[in-house]
Design goal:
- The chain is an alpha/beta fold and about 350 residues long.
- The protein is built from twelve helices and nine strands.
- It has a nine-stranded mixed beta sheet.
- It is globular.
Length: about 350
């Protein structure tokens, strides 16, 4: 959620760069899912992940990945986030990441940390990533391991953080908020602070992209979420946007793209609208000629008939992809965003100063 603050000069410069890339449809950021294999079986995951040893002949080869990086560099991209599945199941991950660094990209890794032993931590440090973000699902092994369905995974994730910190690699612990862990967030924040790493949380729990709704059982109850938001949403911490006309809930279609393990190019991780495949067309033509970029970049609030008149729009954090996958209409109301906005408004009002 947004906080009220005075922007540092460096942040002003960065935000101006982002604004320009969005306006000009210039590529800035790439999210690359290198594999859908994973060594955890998280019950909330939106992907149908495959076991670590699965044979996946359709994944981009090392050479194809390097060629794609070359094309991304020609388009002017600045950052690449490598994720999965579990990214370190790719045996060529460091060759691919090093190639990205040689092409001038800032590199980030998303991982569960299970495979990060001392020798792997050394290789990660040698890449000099901007950050390594590690998923954690609870403040203790009981909660975390029940989500991952891998006994010992909590301890292995914590071990990974410590190994990376010993090598001066910046880390972030991040937690999707679920009914199982929502009461542990403050403990997680303190635990992260004690370890010397940043902490992030996310309210997003979405259906699987196959249409399977089973992950939604993890969403917090209304009472849980309202209590959570009351501690984090107030006039001093939530800037009410005007949410009119050209207001955007996100930057879909403007300055970023997602690459699938099989070379499919999507507008973003959430919406997964395909613009083409790098095995079938040059990336430059996909970026410059596919109609989906203009279609999705036009998703301003003025072009969302339900959102533009909704009384909750100033409190809403909407994902167009969730609206499409869960409610069947990218332009329509996102039921989960509406629910969260309703509770956020109540929390905001509950925290408004009262007169004497």
């Amino acid at each position: 959620m947004s906080e009220q603050y005075t922007e540092a000069p460096q942040l002003n410069v960065y935000n101006e760069i982002v604004r320009r890339t969005r306006k000009q449809h210039r590529l800035l950021a790439v999210h690359w899912e290198l594999t859908y294999r994973c060594n955890e079986r998280c019950t909330h995951c939106y992907l149908d992940v495959m076991s670590p040893g699965s044979k996946v002949p359709g994944e981009l080869s090392t050479d194809e990945a390097k060629q794609t990086i070359d094309q991304l560099a020609q388009l002017g991209g600045l950052t690449i986030t490598f994720s999965g599945g579990e990214v370190f199941l790719r045996k060529d991950i460091f060759e691919i990441a090093q190639h990205a660094r040689q092409k001038g990209f800032a590199v980030r890794f998303f991982t569960n940390g299970i495979l990060i032993k001392p020798e792997v931590a050394d290789k990660i440090a040698a890449i000099k990533p901007v950050v390594v973000e590690l998923s954690i699902y609870g403040a203790n092994a009981e909660t975390h391991d029940s989500i991952t369905q891998v006994p010992g995974s909590f301890d292995l994730t914590i071990r990974a953080v410590k190994l990376l910190l010993e090598r001066n690699v910046r880390c972030i612990l991040k937690t999707p908020i679920m009914r199982e862990n929502i009461e542990q967030v403050e403990v997680l924040q303190q635990m992260s602070e004690d370890m010397g790493v940043s902490f992030q949380y996310d309210l997003t729990i979405i259906p699987k992209h196959t249409g399977d709704l089973s992950p939604l059982k993890h969403r917090p109850t209304d009472d849980q979420l309202l209590n959570f938001l009351r501690n984090r949403t107030s006039p001093s911490t939530w800037n009410l946007p005007e949410a009119e006309g050209d207001f955007r809930f996100c930057g879909i279609g403007m300055n970023s793209l997602t690459v699938s393990p099989y070379g499919e190019i999507y507008t973003c991780v959430g919406a997964r609208v395909s613009a083409g495949n790098v095995r079938q067309a040059p990336l430059a033509s996909i970026w410059k000629e596919s109609a989906v970029w203009e279609e999705t970049s036009n998703l301003t609030i003025g072009n969302l008939p339900v959102c533009s008149t909704c009384e909750l729009r100033q409190y809403c954090i909407r994902c167009h992809g969730t609206a499409a996958f869960e409610d069947g209409d990218m332009l329509g109301c996102s039921s989960v965003a509406y629910r969260e906005a309703r509770l956020r408004r109540q929390a905001y009002r509950d925290n408004m100063p009262t007169g004497d």
